[in-house]
Amino acid sequence: MADKKVEAITSMEEDFAQWYTDVVVKADLTGYTSVKGFMVLKPAGYAIWELIQKQLDERFKATGVENVYLPMLIPEGLLQKEKDHVEGFAPEVAWVTHGGLNELQEKLCVRPTSETLFCDFYQKDITSYRDLPKVYNQWCSVVRWEKETRPFLRSREFLWQEGHTAHATAEEAQERTIQMLNVYADFCEQVLAIPVVKGQKTEKEKFAGAVATYTIEALMHDGKALQSGTSHNFGDGFAQAFGVQYTDKDNQLKHVHQTSWGVTTRLIGAIIMVHGDDNGLKLPPRVAPTQVMIVPIQQKKEGVLEKAEELRAKLSEVARVKVDATDKSPGFKFAECEMRGIPLRVEIGPRDIENNQCVVVRRDTGEKLTVSLDELEAKVAELLDTIQKDMLEAARAHRDSHTYTAKNWDEFVDIVENKPGFIKAMWCGCTECEEAIKAETGATTRCMPFEQEEITDVCVHCGKPAKKMVYFGRAY
């Protein structure tokens, strides 16, 4: 464990939940508001979301996605059209009952998600096979009235993107569903340095109204799972409920097949809990708003601030870089860099300038390097790439060493109680058995991974013939 430079952070070993809250507050990512569960995203937090949004949006558009924006209010009657869907969301919906001083004739729901609005829109917009496919996405916020809230992980309003597509055939819809799941998985690994397990949700855990839900599951430092992105195949169920039809090439009227997929600001919570340590945040370079912080030493001495600014101008060709020219002490600045998770710190003082060098410190390992100023740009670019790769490898090693296999119920219970992490075990496919496992251990089915293994031929809980290998875990 690294020396604790910031005493205000609770140790993660002592109290992980409090450590998480401390990091969010001390790194100045969010602020509290007058309405419980609604958070202010401060510049440091919102800048991470902007980088997530920018890089995901580029990946979406590369697959043919177009962005749109739909209203935030949904008439009650529209929501009622898809029975399973409305039942799934009913407990979390916030309602608007008045417009100004007048009571509305029909209540309006603040969107918890936008399937019903997209269906209503598609019903008017799609008439012929020539109108298909529709591959749309919107960046917006949604409101779900959660009982318990925690910054980023579970708030009553959160930012997200929701993709909604309409296709002529079931095959096209399924292909898009899996394509977007793969976009999410690749993004998490390559940009956020978070390894994920890809798979299908069980019938009990799937999205209300979907034919099938697919998920990427990540493992946090404390051994709990976090659902980090989902992609849903709706089949033609929503289309039938809302009358979304098209005329095919043979002039036959058919229902469209739809998909939906989304990730949220919860990803910032994942970054904190996968990579952070007792000194604070640890941001992968590709999602760090400031990748390099230059800290001038003895900055009042002649030429020091000028040299720091000169380095900033040069390094800005290869990185997002700032100079900390505040009047705080160097030690405080170093601790603040660590707290905020800045991947690289560059220290430059009078003696360094004389020797045409500087000290570069890695946030992920704490390693200090003396680098010639002539080679600084190339070295910084190289180090940022190395840190990105090393952080993914470290996270993967942690996940793999906290993934266990249970062949029978005694092993399963022992792992849940004593070894926090993913548990791979066989399952019979019965919802009753799945519910019993959750009731007895608190572990839920995270997903049925695409890469199946046959651990035994019977269910870990009931002993009946097994149908699937499942990842189980306690989760956020």
Name the helicity range.
Answer: 25-40%
Broad structural category = alpha+beta
Major sheet characteristics: 11 strands, mixed
**How would you sum up the global shape?**
globular
Roughly how many Å apart are the termini?
A: 25 Å
- Which spans of ≥5 residues are poorly predicted at pLDDT below 50? none
Q: Count of helices?
A: 14
How large a portion of the residues is in β-strands, by DSSP E? 25-35%
Question: If strands are numbered along the chain, what order do they take across the biggest sheet?
Answer: 3-7-8-14-11-10-9-22-23-21-20
Please compute the radius of gyration using only Cα atoms: 25 Å
Mean pLDDT: 96
How many DSSP-defined strands?
Answer: 23
Model description:
- It is a single chain.
- The chain is α+β, with helices and mostly antiparallel strands and 476 residues long.
- The protein is 35% helix and 27% strand.
- The chain contains 14 helices and 23 strands.
- The strands form 5 sheets. It has an 11-stranded mixed beta sheet, sandwiched between helices.
- Strand 15, helix 9 and strand 16 form a beta-alpha-beta unit.
- It is globular, with a radius of gyration of 25 Å.
- The relative contact order is 0.11.
- The mean pLDDT is 96.
